[in-house]
Amino acid sequence: MSIIIMIIVGFIVGLIARAVMPGDQNMGIIMTTILGIVGSVVAGFLGQSLGWYAPGEPAGWIGSVVGAIVVLFVVGLIAKKRA
Question: Which segments cross the bilayer (predicted)?
Fold first, then answer.
């Protein structure tokens, strides 16, 4: 059941990050979900490194969205460099 919740939350976080980040992100539902999940992982890792979260504590909604925006920004830089 936790995997289904992770997928749903990842999708919602990915949608919010894509709405906040300016520009055109051509992503489907699956890539949006992966973006949200990776953003949550990035936020959790950075939060634990900075001492904001205890080990094993998940990142919050705002942290997950910020993490997803960071991932979108990095992907945008890499895509721009390739083109």
Answer: 6-21, 28-47, 59-79
Residues 6+ apart with CB under 8 A from 35: 10, 13, 14, 17, 18, 27, 68, 71, 72
Cut 0.70: pTM above it: yes
Q: Residue 42 belongs to what domain range?
A: 3-19+27-80
pLDDT digits (tens, 9 = 90+) for 12-37: 999 999 999 888 888 889 999 999 99
If one counts the domains in the chain, the total is 1
What residues have CB less than 8 Å from 43, skipping those under 6 apart? Answer: 59, 60, 63, 64, 66, 67, 68
Structure tokens at 69: 């925006």
Which H helix or E strand runs over 70? helix 61-82
Q: Is the sign of the CA dihedral 60, 63, 69, 73 positive or negative?
A: negative
